[in-house]
Structures are given as C-alpha cells and as structure tokens.
Amino acid sequence: MKMKVAIKLLLGVCISLILSSCEEDTAPVPQAAMTVNKGQLEINESMIIHFTGSADQVVVYTGDDMHDYELREQSNTGFVVNKNLFTYSYATPGTYKVVCVASTYTDGATDLKRDTCSYTVTVIDDQTEIENISCPQIVYDEVFAEKLLNDEWLMRLPRKIKYNNQTASISLSQRLRFYIQSELTKVYINDKEFSSTAKYDLSAPVEVSVTSDYGTTRLHKLYTVNYPEFKSFTLAGATGTLIRNEFDYSTFVLEVVLPQGTDVSNLIPEFTTYSPDEKVYIGNVEQLSGTSAVDFTQEVHYRLVSTASGHPDMQAVSDVTVIITYQ
User: Fold this and answer.
1) Do 227 and 143 form a contact (C-beta atoms < 8 A)?
2) What does the alpha-carbon distance between residue 53 and residue 14 come to, in Å, rounded to a whole number?
3) Which UniProt keywords apply (predicted)?
4) Are residues 249 and 214 part of one domain?
5) What's the rounded Cα separation, in Å, for the pair 255 and 271?
6) What is the pLDDT of residues 245-295, one digit of tens each?
7) How many Å apart are CA 219 and CA 207, to the nearest integer?
8) Is the pLDDT of residue 201 over 60?
C-alpha cells in the first residue's frame, strides 16, 4: 500500500516537471505593431518608426536596396530596433514596403515565434534647396556665396589676388558650382540649363531656377560684388602702394613712404576707387578725396564699402590699414 502511494507521488512529480519543462520551452506570442511618422517623405528626410507591439527582438526591413524583406533569403537584411525607436532616410525616390518583424524566443532558443506587420512609404525627390554656391576656380581658391533672405545670394569676389608673389586679376566671368543634395535636381541660369564648365557673367544679377525631380521649381537670385579697394592713393604728393593679403581678400595694407620730418597730423589724401558704388569711411564718417583731413600720427584704418547697384543691402566691406614709413 505504501509503495503504491510512493509511486503515485513520484508520477505526480514527474508529470509536474514535464509540464513545467514544456512551459519553459514555449515562447510567448509576439505582436508586431508600429507607427510611422509619415507616409510620404523627401529624400534624406528621416522616417521615424516607433515599435508599439511586444517582442524580445524587433527587426525592420526598409524595403530599399539590400533591405527588402521579400529577398531576405538572398542576403537582404533588416535593421535591429533599439529601445523601440528606429530612424532611417532614403537617398533614392520610390515606393518602399517597410516590414517590421517581431520575434520571441525561449532562453535556450528551443522555441521561436515571429509576427510581422508592414507599412508603405513613398519617397519623392523634391530638392530645390541650394546648400551653397561657389566660384570654384578663383585661381587656386574656391569662393563661397553668402545665403541671404528670400532665396537671395551674395558672392563677394576680389578684383585682384596675390598669387606666387604676383598679382592676378579676377574676372567677373566665372564658373559656378551648386551644392544640392539631389543629383536629379536641375539648375537653370537665366533660363538656360546650367553647365559646370561654362562661364557666367556675374557683373549683373543672375537668375537661378531650380527644378526638382518631383517637378517643383524654386527661384533664386545671385548678386556679385567686388571687395572694394583704392585704385589710387596719394598722400603729401607720395603715391601709396597697396599690399594684398594672400588669404583674406577683404584686408589690405597701404604703404606710403614720406620724406623724413613730414608733418602727418593734418594731411588731406587724394584717392580714387574703382566704382561710384564704393564709399570710403573712417569709422562712420565718409571720407572725400581732396577734402577730408586726417591725422596720421596714429594708425589709420579705412573702411571701404561696395554695394550692388540698386541694392544697398548687398555689401562687401574691406579694411585698409595705412602704414607710413620715412626715408
């Protein structure tokens, strides 16, 4: 009798252990669920996915090249989601099927369960934004324009530059380079398709039309102003020599050699500039050639301001320091 009871107890324990073991070897059922911030994206715009289901591991197939869920048996892979958040951007326009794979598994990986959900996103190439404009061949330098309001740009160019101890003149007929995120975006200059090898006349404002692959057109305008400088400068009958900065086109030194003992406390310079749109100041006081007396006993800094004709807000400013030596 006692033996029968012991056998029954032993069988009960075994059955309990077997059932417990079976329960441990069974993975919970996963739930694949996600939210996507947009159904239509632009190229290079972030797609943001929040995983809202339940799983031990979450993988997202973005649907583009090498990440297509339907081709997972052909070496296409997904991205493991960390902390239920995943961001991604597409470089090529198209329609993509985004697949979320939610997985659960036991500790010994004896049981694995999966659930999937999908979402379709459309990616368009609607890039009309210009990140930068440059003149790429100012002898050895690339000069960039400044982006202003209302899609207006200002290019500041030197009239001349110091190069290999020589002075090279810079033309206003220049090649242009446009920095735009999409290679499919088309640029037109004054209604003609842009060519990276052509030279464009920058002496007048340039109309720039940008058309995206999606078909949107955006208008920009490029103004060009030379850094102002003295064309001539005479002080007490002596002609000054303009010395250029090889690395900064907006700063100059003007050297004037005078006879020893010259009184420089109240001299009236005579000067010319290259354009009537170039004004000369000391501080905020405009200086007029042959009229404005200057005390040169201390270092004098001239501020030259050049503006685009009819557009006073389009400015290039230069600083000229006068250095007087004696012989």
Assistant:
1) no
2) 37
3) Signal
4) no
5) 14
6) 988 999 999 999 999 999 999 999 999 999 988 999 999 999 999 999 999
7) 7
8) yes
Would 303 be classed as within a structural domain?
yes
Last residue within a domain, chosen from 93, 124, 155: 124
Residues 54 and 100 placed together within one structural domain of the fold:
yes
How distant, in Å, are the alpha carbons of 133, 208, 233, 315 from that of 153?
A: 8, 10, 32, 11
Which alpha helices (H) appear in the chain, and where do they start and end?
A: 2-24
Which of the four pLDDT bands, split at 50, 70 and 90, describes residue 299?
very high
- Domain CATH for 163: 2.60.40.2340
pLDDT band for position 24 (cuts 50, 70, 90): low
Q: Which of 160, 78, 171 is nearest to 116 (CA)?
A: 78
CA distances from 165 to 18, 226, 231, 239, 243 (A): 92, 21, 20, 21, 11
CA distances from 134 to 4, 15, 174, 313 (A): 96, 80, 10, 20
Tokens encoding 76: 């296409």
Whole-angstrom Cα distance, residue 231 to residue 240? 10
Written as one string, the DSSP assignment of 97-150 is EEEEEEEEE-TTSS-EEEEEEEEEEEEE-------EEEEEEETTEEEEPEE-ST
How high is the pLDDT of residue 11? 47
Amino acid sitting at position 132: N
**Of 227, 235, 229, 189, nearest in space to 210 by CA:** 189
Domain boundary among 124, 140, 157: 124
> Which residue in the block uniquely carries the two structure tokens 């010259």?
262
Residue 165's domain spans which residues?
A: 132-226
Q: What is the pTM of this model?
A: 0.78
